[in-house]
Write a structure and sequence with these properties.
The chain is an alpha/beta fold. It has 10 helices and 25 strands. It binds flavin-adenine dinucleotide. Flavin-adenine dinucleotide binds next to helix 1, strand 2, helix 8 and strand 21.
Length: 417
């Protein structure tokens, strides 16, 4: 009979939480695993919620991390619809909203992130739509119909993916963005590709405008509303979708006194300020060996891959999570993958191989002559050489980067001149 000192409890039953259970079993952990998740659904993946699933082209079953039978077959005690309300590190117990105190030996926080709310006067008078959960996606999908006027606040990845899905469904779409370009993190040249893409598909993309207030057009609490913009103009929508970023769910960690700094602070082995508590996925702000600093990554691949390192750490094996950040998007007929990390200020040059106007290219972000990030748009099977190039940390001649005749594999190790 296993004791609580052998139990691994995982809070958050989404991609990172469920994959932690998978990785623990694959790494040979034979003791008790309890996976606690506030949502009622089986652990699922979120990328389809703004793409295939929202469009109706991906089946519901395809979003689940594992089939329902997997959890019983692998002796994982899955508690769905249960929220962990607090964490008592002195007794090593989770306090659940069922009233139960769940003892554990080691704990993994996979609590993810929640949408940042639109915080302007009147925001509580309209049923603003956010997109994080399967239920959100179902609600949105039912509302996206020809002729419906959808106003999207925020031209980030989620906002633009919803815009693409809404246009594909025949809705009229307005996208409002406070910054001068959508996806400003990419820099103006590459961001412009996405602006053109959406405008060509009939999206009314308005940049440089913030939302100052909201008011309902019908009875308060309905989905229809008017947005009052920072320039004094107004935009009405049957539906207002807000995609203005996410906030890591750190309440449990903070309440228990764990170090919190833009997420739960963890080392490269994904340990929090306590060795017996780890954090993975969107909530984890992890030391990255290659970057030499902490980074919190809000992407699918990170939630999928960090759990392997966490499982190994829990089992006392030495490991460090050093994969490069990677993510992807699909909008209309544009598919994109991005590797590396280039926040504004992290790079001093952007060069492009291929044709921006044709939307078939690879963009490279450089810092001091070294490639720190790369994006391939409608060019496939290049992630490996691109990541090798970034990881090499070597200087590369920009002229060779832009020359499509130079094989990507030959770029590693080339020096200017
Ligand atoms: C619509 C959408 C589209 C996306 N598309 C892409 C994409 O194309 N490419 C990409 O790379 N990434 C994409 N992402 C991001 C990706 O889905 C996330 O990085 C990933 O879901 C993170 O997984 P996670 O398990 O760390 O956290 P989450 O998915 O946020 O899951 C955390 C879970 O923990 C639960 N929880 C929180 N607190 C508690 C508690 N106290 N007790 C119990 N349960 C709790 C939550 O209810 C939630 O179910 C997308 C995200 C969204 C929302």
């Amino acid at each position: 009979m296993p004791t609580s000192s052998h139990t691994v409890a995982v809070v958050g039953a989404s991609l990172a939480g469920a994959t932690t259970a998978v990785a623990l079993r694959e790494e040979g952990f034979a003791e008790r695993i309890v996976l606690v998740g506030a949502e009622r659904h089986l652990p699922y993946e979120r990328p389809p919620l703004s793409k295939g699933y929202l469009l109706g082209s991906a089946a519901r079953e395809s979003v689940f991390v594992q089939p329902e039978t997997w959890y019983a077959e692998h002796d994982v005690d899955l508690r769905l619809g249960v929220r962990a309300e607090s964490l008592d590190l002195a007794t090593r117990e989770l306090v659940l909203d069922t009233g139960e105190r769940l003892p554990f030996g080691q704990l993994v926080l996979a609590t993810g992130a929640s949408p940042r709310r639109l915080d302007v006067p009147g925001a509580d008078q309209v049923d603003l739509q956010y997109l994080r959960t399967l239920d959100d996606s179902d609600r949105l999908r039912a509302a996206l119909r020809p002729g419906v006027r959808v106003v999207i606040v925020g031209a980030g990845w989620i906002g633009l993916e919803v815009a693409a899905a809404a246009r594909t469904a025949g809705a009229d779409v307005v996208v409002l963005e406070q910054a001068a370009v959508p996806l400003g993190v990419l820099g103006p040249e590459v961001a412009g590709v996405f602006a053109d893409l959406h405008r060509e598909h009939g999206v009314d993309l308005r940049v440089g405008v913030g939302v100052a207030a909201v008011r309902p057009t019908g009875p308060a609490g309905g989905t229809a509303g008017i947005l009052v913009l920072s320039d004094g103009s107004e935009v009405a929508g049957d539906l207002i979708v807000v995609g203005v970023g996410v906030i890591p769910n750190v309440e449990l960690a903070r309440g228990a006194g764990l170090a919190v700094d833009n997420g739960v602070a963890v080392d490269a082995a994904l340990r929090t300020s306590r060795d017996d508590v780890l954090a993975v996925g969107d909530v984890a702000n992890a030391t990255h060996p290659l970057l030499g600093r902490r980074i919190r990554v809000e992407h699918w691949a990170n939630a999928l891959n960090q759990p392997r390192t966490a499982a190994r750490t829990l089992l006392g094996r030495t490991d460090a999570y050093d994969r490069l950040p990677y993510f992807f998007t699909d909008q209309y007929d544009l598919g994109m993958e991005y590797s590396g990390h280039a926040a504004p200020g992290d790079y001093d040059q952007v060069v492009v191989r291929g044709d921006l106007a044709e939307r078939a290219f690879i963009a490279f972000w450089l810092s001091g002559g070294r490639v720190v990030a790369a994006m391939n748009v409608n060019v496939w099977d290049v992630t490996e050489p691109l990541q090798r190039l970034i990881r090499s940390g070597r200087s590369v001649d920009p002229a060779r980067l832009t020359d499509a005749d130079v094989p990507l594999d030959d770029l590693v190790g080339t020096t200017p001149g």
